[in-house]
Amino acid sequence: MTRFAPQLQLGLILVLLTAAFLASADFQQIAAGVAMFLLGMIMLEDGFKGLGGSVLERLLANATSSLPRAMGFGIIATAVTQSSSLVSVIAISFLSAGLISLAAGLGIIFGANLGTTTGAWLIAGIGVKVDIAAYAMPMLAFGAVLMFQRGPALRGSGQVLLGIGLIFLGISFIKDGFDAFSAQFDLTRLALTGIVGLLVYTALGTVATVVMQSSHATMLLVITALATGQVSYDNALAVAIGGNIGTTVTALIGAASANYQGKRLALGHLVFNLATAVTALVLIVPLREAVDLISDALGIGAQDFALRLAVFHTLFNLLGIALMVPLMARLITFLERRFAPPASDVSKPRFINADLGAFPATILAAMRNELRHLQKNTTELVCAGLNLRLDDLMQSKDIALTVARARDPIRLDYAARYHDKIKTLHAAIVDFAAQKSTLPLPAPALTHLQELRDASGALVRAVKAVKHMRENTQRFTTQDTGAMQILYDSLRAEIAEIVVAIETLEESPAGARSSLWIEEERRALEASTQHARRNVEAALQTRRITPADATSFLNDSGYAYEAMRAFLEAAQLANRPEDKAQAEIERLLELDDDELEKDTDITS
Amino acid sequence: MAHEKLAEKLGDYFARLGAGKAHKIKRSDVERVLKKLHARRQKLVDDAALKPEQSARLAQKISSADTLIARAEWLLAELSEKAPSDTAPSSPKQD
Fold first, then answer.
1. Nearest-Cα residue of chain B relative to residue A526
2. Residues of A in contact with B75 (CB under 8 A)
3. What is the mean pLDDT of each run of 10 residues along chain B (95 residues)?
């Protein structure tokens, strides 16, 4: 039965709409107005994504260092874009990508709730009082011309203009529809008073917002109905409260596919809006009195209920913030307990997920963090595969000595560990890169996205190469095997040197890092490859090793150098600077393999 | 030609730039990279003085830093020759 619930819901809405259209031609005009308004909201959101998505991302990255700043960002960004869902989506993607804290994410959501009340002010202050359809016409015409241009900025501006035009036209349609409707019907006869009225109209506001997927649309309908006398002021207040509850249902549905961070934020949003709504319902009488006092002080007319509703909308959202900010620490503890990070036996992606949208900086940051996650797993597995411990190596002052002392075999199922810790993450990274490559991302972002995917592939190659040499490494390094032990230890030490160099680079501040430092390791590796070949030949010539052992070692040193090259390739691709020009320069300056070989020959 | 491969890569870069698929490089960007490379080289020289047991490995690294510095200086000269202003030219030199 639940399988068919969406179809049943859609069918019911269509039947109800058809019946209402047959009953009243004016209702058709109101419904068309709502449709235009919703279409306008979608256009506006898409336009802002194209026009300023990356600007919003940059602002967000710098504006979340404290709770007031995060809330300020939420208020301003939502007031400017008139889209709390766009701001919420960016906040969820930043949180999922590990770029902001849960506290900052909640701050943004709280701020967005307050910022969204500016919509009520615009509708009540201008929308229902001025003939805004007249402004809509040129906007639609200019918007359509701009929308068909090639440049993303012009196209985005066109979508924003078209969006505003459609919103204005939609408001005008709804206003005219209600004017005509009120000549035939008096909906105020359906007004309910007292607690029943409060609860019924709150539920109506919730349902309307869930169905239209927009609290803005609910506010528009109720303000216009209020301005044309089709709903009582008290019932309109309840609808506004219901709108706040309804908006969280959309967020909860969206968070169903999000990672644990997205779920935490969605539940935080629900808690905030429910607590605000319940408080507003309980305190409705003093709140109404406060609205009257504030409205009188602002010079809002006693009969201007539309603007008074806007005052109420702002006031009760402010009340919610005042109520929840002191409880923030407890809320965060609750959310973190409710949605714990995934267990670590099988590595699941922590940063990349479907909710990251089409924001280039967020996508790349999530990919970099996920790649770092994979790199950590890879390094630990490769070290364990060679009977080494990463912590010991990182603290070592003499890597060769630390390696020579590591004689105890580390028992592990290498293939199972590869499947659980590496393959699942690599598959997720490849899939994520493939999905995001279909988006219209800027070319430099796309190039780096593909580099990060290739880095993931290189890490997998490193793990597989070490798998091939593991058996002989165990055999020759866990007991005294003379010259073979020395040779295999030298291979282990070289891999360890590279692992430590990469980990040290990763731990250095982002601004001080450069993918060019990896060139030094590549050069050192090239020189040592040539040196190792000479060493084994010398050992064979002096009969310190048998021809069979020499063959094993040559094969395994091939795997070891393959692993080291793959590690270095991954580190080089992953450590491109965020500055696009610097990244281009570093790509140019890197040496190709044959250039490196020639350069090493000349200097060695 | 000392930097034949690098010249080829620069040509590819200009082709990508012309197609709007690469970010424009300014001379000041190359100068910033050069500054980082010189600082890095100095750090390696200092390390070599402090850690004589790693002198062979560090000598390789210093040599690598020298190669990169030479390549960056070549790149800077190419950009300066083609565009006197602080921007990269839109096409490579044909020689």
1. B60
2. 585, 588-589
3. 83 87 88 91 90 81 91 90 54 39
Residue B1 included in any domain: no
Helices then strands, each counted (H, E), chain B: 3, 0
In one letter, which amino acid is A263?
A: K
Give the Cα separation of A245 and A256 in Å (integer): 18
Which residue does chain A place closest to B7, by CA atoms?
Answer: A588
Tell me what pLDDT residue B90 has.
Answer: 46
User: Which of chain A's residues have a Cβ under 8 Å away from the Cβ of B65?
Assistant: 520
Contact across the interface for B60 and A589, Cβ inside 8 Å? no
Tens digits of residue pLDDT in A490-544: 899 999 999 998 988 888 777 677 888 888 888 888 877 777 778 778 887 887 8
Query: A271 and A362, same structural domain?
Result: no
DSSP B24: P
**Same-domain pairing of A329 and A400:** no
Each residue's pLDDT tens digit, A163-190 = 888 887 887 787 777 766 655 655 566 6
Same-domain check for residues A441 and A329: no
Distance CA A37, CA A217 (A): 7
By residue range, what is the domain housing residue A392?
A: 354-603
Total domain count, chain B: 1
Q: Which two tokens stand for residue A513?
A: 């890092």
Q: Flag whether pLDDT at A602 surpasses 70.
A: no
CATH number for the domain including A490? Answer: 1.20.58
The answer to whether the complex's ipTM is over 0.95 is no
pLDDT digits (tens, 9 = 90+) for A324-354: 889 989 999 999 998 887 665 567 888 887 7
Q: For residue A522, which residues of chain B lie inside 8 Å, CB to CB?
A: 64
Q: What is the rounded CA–CA span in Å between residue A467 and residue A80? A: 55
A8 in a domain, yes or no? no
Question: What is the pLDDT at residue A53?
Answer: 54
CA distance B83 to B10: 14
Is the Cβ of A414 closer than 8 Å to some Cβ of chain B? no
- Whether A20 is in a domain gets the answer no
Mean pLDDT (whole number) for A343-368: 78
Kindly state whether residues A325 and A386 are assigned to the same domain: no
Residue of chain A nearest B30, judged by CA positions = A585
Question: Residue A28: in which H helix or E strand, if any?
Answer: helix A25-62
pLDDT band of residue A457 (cuts 50, 70, 90) is very high
| pLDDT of A52 higher than 60 | no
| Residues in Cβ contact with A396 at an 8 Å cutoff, skipping those fewer than 6 apart | A402, A500
More confident of the two residues A76 and A151: A76
Residues A331 and A383 placed together within one structural domain of the fold: no
Locate A528 and state its tokens.
């040592």
Nearest residue of B to residue A443, measured between CA atoms: B21
User: Which has the closest alpha carbon to A267: A212, A332, A211?
Assistant: A332
User: Number of structural domains, chain A?
Assistant: 2
Q: In angstroms, how far is the first alpha carbon of chain A from the final one?
A: 75
If asked whether residues A178 and A278 sit together in one domain, one would say yes
Residue B17 domain flag: no
Of residues A447, A517, A585, nearest to B33 (C-beta): A585
Last residue of a domain, one of A309, A338, A367: A338
Q: Which chain A residues are Cβ-neighbours of B61 within 8 angstroms? A: 520-521, 523-524
The C-alpha atoms of residue A84 and residue A88 are separated, in whole angstroms, by: 6
State which of A338, A371, A392 marks the end of a domain.
A338
Most confident of A2-16, A148-162, A252-266, A489-503: A489-503
Q: Flag whether A14 is in a domain.
A: no
**In-domain check, residue A292:** yes
Domain range for B55 is 26-86
Q: Within a domain: residue B13? A: no
